[in-house]
Amino acid sequence: MTTPPRRWTSLPPPVEGVLWMAFACVCWVSNTLIVRPVTDEIAPIQMMFVRLAISLAVMLPFVWHLGWSALRIQRKGLYAVRAVLMFASMLAWIYSIKLLPIADAVALAFTAPLFATVMAALFLRERVGVRRWSAVVVGFVGALVILRPGVGLFDPNSFFVLLNAATWAGAVIVIRVLTRTENPTVMVLYTFILLTPMSAVPAFFVWQEPSLLCWLLLVTVAVTGVLGHLASTRALSLADTAVVIPVEYLQLPLNAIFAYMLFGEVPSIYVPIGATIIVSAVLYISHRESVRAKQAARAPKVPHGS
User: Fold this and answer.
1) pLDDT confidence of residue 230
2) Has residue 177 been placed in a domain?
3) DSSP category for residue 245
4) Is 3 among the domain residues?
């Protein structure tokens, strides 16, 4: 039996959950916007290493709370696969924000659940019905609306954000398997424990001493990254996924507004059109998954030996 989360307000749990997810979105938007000025000064891999190292330091109190014995893990191979996928995903995301208009990159990043649905069918043998397959196809059509290949406007750097989405989806599939036996907090800790040394070696060869402002931005990225994860986890513990997950899409208008204010980026009309198609497809897939989960929960249990 799980212990209900400690309440900090008198608000209804769904409302509090929505507010926590909104706070997580603010953290993630700040993360995205800070990438551009930091990578103007230092290499993306150096930014990734410093961010991971600071995040690991921020997470150390959780190690103290859990105890060193909690760091024992059972499925080391899957942890390694997840680390490689997340390494590629994080680095590709930094390059995406550095090289692409921010609104384009953020909209295309939301194709990750589409990739995850395909991978769940291929690798987890999850049954995906015609409705969800149709939604996947529609979602990728939305991505094509943004990319517009064949009309002379396709940016090859878009492959970075598609690589980010695909590898992040792969990491999510591994997480689904790991959560059957592993502690979620320990999984988060190992993200930083494994990725920090992985990024340290290439970062060493391109190292440049960051300015004081750059150090401040790096600390902000690391801290808000951890806070965003904790806030989203809190949100999901208070309310149903179907209630809080749509709040994630606040990132689309917020990133577009601040990218215009800070960098003068004006998104093409095709970006909101494509983003709307992608988000609609992802929300429909989430709805179908929720329906299937409820049906499975209501299904009568078959006695052993029958």
Assistant:
1) 81
2) yes
3) G
4) no
